[in-house]
Design a protein that fits this description.
Blueprint: H1 2-14, H2 16-43, H3 50-53, H4 56-77, H5 80-86, H6 91-125, H7 132-159, H8 163-188, E1 193-197, E2 203-210, H9 217-229, H10 231-239, H11 246-269
Antiparallel strand pairs: 1-2
Helix pairs in contact: 1-6, 2-6, 4-6, 4-7, 4-8, 4-10, 6-7, 6-11, 7-8, 7-10, 7-11, 8-9, 8-10, 9-10
Length: 274
Protein backbone atom coordinates (compact mmCIF):
# COMPACT_ATOMS: atom_id res chain seq x y z
CA UNK A 1 0.00 0.00 0.00
CA UNK A 2 2.96 2.31 0.56
CA UNK A 3 3.83 2.20 -3.15
CA UNK A 4 0.23 2.93 -4.11
CA UNK A 5 0.12 5.84 -1.70
CA UNK A 6 3.39 7.25 -3.03
CA UNK A 7 2.18 6.93 -6.61
CA UNK A 8 -1.07 8.73 -5.84
CA UNK A 9 0.72 11.54 -4.03
CA UNK A 10 3.06 11.91 -7.01
CA UNK A 11 0.04 12.17 -9.32
CA UNK A 12 -1.46 14.81 -7.03
CA UNK A 13 1.74 16.82 -7.13
CA UNK A 14 1.81 16.73 -10.93
CA UNK A 15 -1.93 17.27 -11.42
CA UNK A 16 -2.92 20.62 -12.90
CA UNK A 17 -6.46 20.04 -11.70
CA UNK A 18 -5.26 19.63 -8.11
CA UNK A 19 -3.12 22.76 -8.24
CA UNK A 20 -5.91 24.69 -9.92
CA UNK A 21 -8.44 23.75 -7.24
CA UNK A 22 -5.94 24.64 -4.52
CA UNK A 23 -5.54 28.09 -6.04
CA UNK A 24 -9.30 28.39 -6.56
CA UNK A 25 -9.98 27.47 -2.93
CA UNK A 26 -7.65 30.21 -1.74
CA UNK A 27 -9.16 32.80 -4.10
CA UNK A 28 -12.67 31.81 -3.06
CA UNK A 29 -11.78 32.28 0.61
CA UNK A 30 -10.48 35.77 -0.13
CA UNK A 31 -13.60 36.48 -2.20
CA UNK A 32 -15.96 35.43 0.60
CA UNK A 33 -14.18 37.68 3.08
CA UNK A 34 -14.41 40.52 0.57
CA UNK A 35 -18.18 40.02 0.33
CA UNK A 36 -18.51 40.34 4.10
CA UNK A 37 -16.45 43.53 4.10
CA UNK A 38 -18.68 44.94 1.35
CA UNK A 39 -21.82 44.05 3.34
CA UNK A 40 -20.50 45.89 6.38
CA UNK A 41 -19.56 48.99 4.42
CA UNK A 42 -22.68 49.08 2.23
CA UNK A 43 -25.37 48.06 4.71
CA UNK A 44 -23.77 48.64 8.11
CA UNK A 45 -24.34 45.05 9.26
CA UNK A 46 -22.14 43.37 11.82
CA UNK A 47 -19.95 40.68 10.28
CA UNK A 48 -17.48 38.23 11.76
CA UNK A 49 -15.09 35.56 10.54
CA UNK A 50 -17.48 32.81 11.66
CA UNK A 51 -19.78 33.53 8.72
CA UNK A 52 -17.14 32.54 6.16
CA UNK A 53 -14.57 30.40 7.97
CA UNK A 54 -16.82 27.35 8.35
CA UNK A 55 -18.16 27.64 4.83
CA UNK A 56 -15.50 25.14 3.73
CA UNK A 57 -17.73 22.34 5.01
CA UNK A 58 -20.13 23.23 2.17
CA UNK A 59 -17.41 24.03 -0.36
CA UNK A 60 -15.63 20.70 -0.02
CA UNK A 61 -18.68 18.71 -1.13
CA UNK A 62 -18.93 20.59 -4.43
CA UNK A 63 -15.18 20.65 -4.99
CA UNK A 64 -14.78 16.91 -4.50
CA UNK A 65 -17.75 16.27 -6.81
CA UNK A 66 -15.58 17.79 -9.54
CA UNK A 67 -12.18 16.52 -8.45
CA UNK A 68 -12.84 12.83 -7.76
CA UNK A 69 -14.43 11.86 -11.11
CA UNK A 70 -11.83 13.87 -13.05
CA UNK A 71 -8.77 12.66 -11.13
CA UNK A 72 -9.63 9.02 -10.44
CA UNK A 73 -11.80 8.54 -13.52
CA UNK A 74 -8.72 9.19 -15.64
CA UNK A 75 -7.20 5.98 -14.26
CA UNK A 76 -9.53 3.98 -16.49
CA UNK A 77 -8.76 5.85 -19.70
CA UNK A 78 -4.98 5.92 -19.27
CA UNK A 79 -4.74 2.32 -18.05
CA UNK A 80 -3.39 3.17 -14.59
CA UNK A 81 -5.85 0.87 -12.82
CA UNK A 82 -4.96 -2.10 -15.01
CA UNK A 83 -1.28 -1.42 -14.43
CA UNK A 84 -1.73 -1.33 -10.65
CA UNK A 85 -3.60 -4.64 -10.62
CA UNK A 86 -1.15 -6.23 -13.09
CA UNK A 87 1.72 -5.18 -10.80
CA UNK A 88 0.26 -7.38 -8.07
CA UNK A 89 -1.60 -4.84 -5.96
CA UNK A 90 -4.87 -6.05 -4.49
CA UNK A 91 -7.96 -4.30 -5.75
CA UNK A 92 -9.17 -3.62 -2.21
CA UNK A 93 -5.86 -1.89 -1.47
CA UNK A 94 -6.16 0.20 -4.63
CA UNK A 95 -9.68 1.24 -3.66
CA UNK A 96 -8.78 2.15 -0.07
CA UNK A 97 -5.66 4.10 -1.06
CA UNK A 98 -7.72 6.07 -3.58
CA UNK A 99 -10.18 6.93 -0.80
CA UNK A 100 -7.36 8.09 1.46
CA UNK A 101 -5.90 10.13 -1.39
CA UNK A 102 -9.26 11.78 -2.08
CA UNK A 103 -9.66 12.60 1.62
CA UNK A 104 -6.14 14.04 1.79
CA UNK A 105 -6.92 16.24 -1.22
CA UNK A 106 -10.18 17.38 0.41
CA UNK A 107 -8.34 18.35 3.58
CA UNK A 108 -5.73 20.30 1.61
CA UNK A 109 -8.43 22.19 -0.31
CA UNK A 110 -10.17 22.96 2.97
CA UNK A 111 -6.96 24.03 4.71
CA UNK A 112 -6.12 26.44 1.90
CA UNK A 113 -9.61 27.96 2.06
CA UNK A 114 -9.37 28.43 5.84
CA UNK A 115 -5.88 29.89 5.49
CA UNK A 116 -7.23 32.45 3.02
CA UNK A 117 -10.03 33.34 5.43
CA UNK A 118 -7.57 33.83 8.27
CA UNK A 119 -5.07 35.89 6.28
CA UNK A 120 -7.77 38.07 4.74
CA UNK A 121 -10.49 38.02 7.38
CA UNK A 122 -8.46 38.70 10.52
CA UNK A 123 -7.26 42.18 9.49
CA UNK A 124 -10.49 43.13 7.70
CA UNK A 125 -13.39 41.71 9.72
CA UNK A 126 -11.82 40.43 12.93
CA UNK A 127 -11.37 37.00 14.43
CA UNK A 128 -13.67 34.15 15.31
CA UNK A 129 -16.27 34.74 18.01
CA UNK A 130 -16.71 31.09 19.00
CA UNK A 131 -14.50 29.23 21.43
CA UNK A 132 -11.43 27.31 20.33
CA UNK A 133 -13.14 24.12 21.54
CA UNK A 134 -16.07 24.77 19.21
CA UNK A 135 -13.70 25.46 16.32
CA UNK A 136 -11.82 22.22 16.96
CA UNK A 137 -14.92 20.03 17.17
CA UNK A 138 -16.52 21.69 14.17
CA UNK A 139 -13.41 21.19 12.06
CA UNK A 140 -13.07 17.55 13.11
CA UNK A 141 -16.75 16.84 12.55
CA UNK A 142 -16.79 18.53 9.16
CA UNK A 143 -13.69 16.54 8.20
CA UNK A 144 -15.57 13.30 8.87
CA UNK A 145 -18.44 14.61 6.73
CA UNK A 146 -15.92 15.37 3.96
CA UNK A 147 -14.74 11.75 4.24
CA UNK A 148 -18.32 10.59 3.69
CA UNK A 149 -18.58 12.80 0.60
CA UNK A 150 -15.35 11.28 -0.73
CA UNK A 151 -16.56 7.73 -0.07
CA UNK A 152 -19.84 8.27 -1.94
CA UNK A 153 -18.25 10.03 -4.91
CA UNK A 154 -15.42 7.49 -5.17
CA UNK A 155 -17.94 4.63 -5.11
CA UNK A 156 -19.54 5.97 -8.28
CA UNK A 157 -16.23 6.85 -9.93
CA UNK A 158 -14.54 3.50 -9.33
CA UNK A 159 -17.51 1.54 -10.66
CA UNK A 160 -18.10 3.65 -13.78
CA UNK A 161 -15.64 2.86 -16.55
CA UNK A 162 -16.18 6.14 -18.37
CA UNK A 163 -15.07 9.38 -16.76
CA UNK A 164 -17.87 11.38 -18.39
CA UNK A 165 -20.49 9.04 -16.93
CA UNK A 166 -19.07 9.22 -13.40
CA UNK A 167 -18.73 13.02 -13.62
CA UNK A 168 -22.37 13.48 -14.61
CA UNK A 169 -23.66 10.98 -12.03
CA UNK A 170 -21.64 12.53 -9.19
CA UNK A 171 -22.69 16.05 -10.10
CA UNK A 172 -26.37 15.09 -10.30
CA UNK A 173 -26.11 13.26 -6.98
CA UNK A 174 -24.49 16.29 -5.34
CA UNK A 175 -27.22 18.60 -6.60
CA UNK A 176 -29.85 16.14 -5.39
CA UNK A 177 -28.25 15.80 -1.96
CA UNK A 178 -28.12 19.53 -1.36
CA UNK A 179 -31.60 20.20 -2.74
CA UNK A 180 -32.97 17.42 -0.56
CA UNK A 181 -31.12 18.76 2.50
CA UNK A 182 -32.43 22.29 1.89
CA UNK A 183 -35.97 20.94 1.51
CA UNK A 184 -35.67 18.98 4.77
CA UNK A 185 -34.24 22.01 6.55
CA UNK A 186 -37.13 24.16 5.29
CA UNK A 187 -39.73 21.72 6.62
CA UNK A 188 -37.97 21.33 9.96
CA UNK A 189 -37.86 25.10 10.43
CA UNK A 190 -41.59 25.55 9.96
CA UNK A 191 -42.92 27.38 13.06
CA UNK A 192 -45.34 25.50 15.28
CA UNK A 193 -47.64 28.52 15.57
CA UNK A 194 -48.15 31.51 13.32
CA UNK A 195 -50.00 34.81 13.26
CA UNK A 196 -51.90 36.17 10.28
CA UNK A 197 -51.59 39.79 9.22
CA UNK A 198 -53.73 41.84 6.87
CA UNK A 199 -52.59 43.96 3.96
CA UNK A 200 -51.85 46.89 6.29
CA UNK A 201 -49.65 44.69 8.49
CA UNK A 202 -52.05 44.51 11.40
CA UNK A 203 -52.42 41.21 13.26
CA UNK A 204 -55.57 39.24 12.47
CA UNK A 205 -56.89 37.45 15.54
CA UNK A 206 -55.66 37.50 19.09
CA UNK A 207 -54.33 33.96 19.44
CA UNK A 208 -51.59 32.29 17.37
CA UNK A 209 -52.87 29.59 15.03
CA UNK A 210 -51.22 26.20 14.87
CA UNK A 211 -49.28 25.79 11.64
CA UNK A 212 -50.57 22.73 9.73
CA UNK A 213 -47.17 22.39 8.00
CA UNK A 214 -45.37 21.99 11.33
CA UNK A 215 -43.78 18.55 11.73
CA UNK A 216 -44.25 16.79 15.04
CA UNK A 217 -43.97 13.37 16.60
CA UNK A 218 -42.54 10.46 14.63
CA UNK A 219 -42.70 12.36 11.34
CA UNK A 220 -40.39 15.03 12.69
CA UNK A 221 -38.02 12.39 14.02
CA UNK A 222 -37.82 10.78 10.58
CA UNK A 223 -37.13 14.12 8.90
CA UNK A 224 -34.45 14.95 11.45
CA UNK A 225 -32.80 11.56 11.00
CA UNK A 226 -32.73 11.93 7.21
CA UNK A 227 -31.31 15.44 7.53
CA UNK A 228 -28.65 14.32 9.97
CA UNK A 229 -27.67 11.26 7.93
CA UNK A 230 -26.94 13.01 4.65
CA UNK A 231 -23.49 14.57 4.25
CA UNK A 232 -25.13 17.62 2.66
CA UNK A 233 -27.34 18.18 5.69
CA UNK A 234 -24.36 17.85 8.01
CA UNK A 235 -22.34 20.30 5.90
CA UNK A 236 -25.12 22.88 6.06
CA UNK A 237 -25.33 22.60 9.83
CA UNK A 238 -21.57 22.82 10.31
CA UNK A 239 -21.42 25.92 8.11
CA UNK A 240 -24.15 27.50 10.26
CA UNK A 241 -22.53 26.30 13.51
CA UNK A 242 -25.66 24.37 14.48
CA UNK A 243 -23.76 21.89 16.64
CA UNK A 244 -26.67 20.39 18.55
CA UNK A 245 -26.22 16.69 17.72
CA UNK A 246 -22.65 16.56 16.43
CA UNK A 247 -21.89 13.15 17.97
CA UNK A 248 -24.79 11.71 16.03
CA UNK A 249 -23.61 13.34 12.80
CA UNK A 250 -20.11 11.89 13.21
CA UNK A 251 -21.52 8.40 13.73
CA UNK A 252 -23.79 8.76 10.71
CA UNK A 253 -20.91 9.99 8.54
CA UNK A 254 -18.64 7.17 9.67
CA UNK A 255 -21.45 4.69 9.05
CA UNK A 256 -22.05 5.99 5.51
CA UNK A 257 -18.31 5.87 4.84
CA UNK A 258 -17.95 2.30 6.12
CA UNK A 259 -20.99 0.91 4.27
CA UNK A 260 -20.29 2.65 0.96
CA UNK A 261 -16.57 1.81 1.06
CA UNK A 262 -17.19 -1.85 1.87
CA UNK A 263 -19.75 -2.13 -0.92
CA UNK A 264 -17.47 -0.32 -3.35
CA UNK A 265 -14.48 -2.52 -2.54
CA UNK A 266 -16.53 -5.69 -3.02
CA UNK A 267 -18.03 -4.55 -6.32
CA UNK A 268 -14.66 -3.28 -7.55
CA UNK A 269 -13.27 -6.80 -7.06
CA UNK A 270 -15.66 -7.98 -9.80
CA UNK A 271 -15.12 -4.98 -12.07
CA UNK A 272 -13.80 -5.72 -15.56
CA UNK A 273 -10.90 -3.33 -16.07
CA UNK A 274 -10.35 -4.18 -19.75
Amino acid sequence: MRNLWSANLFRLKKSRLFRGILLGSFVFGVFMCGIRVHERQAYGVNVCLDSVFFGWSLLVGWVMAVFIPAFFGAEYSDGTLRSKVAAGHRRAAVYLVNLLTAFAAAMMFSAVYMLACILTGLPLIGGLTVSSRTVLWCVLGAAVTALAFCAVFLFITMLASRRSVSAVCVLLLTVGLFIGAIALDYRLNEPEYCLFVDIQGATVGEEPVRNPAYLSGRTRQVYEMLYDMTPAGQAIRYSNLELVHMERWVLYALGVTAVVTAAGAVLFQRKDLK
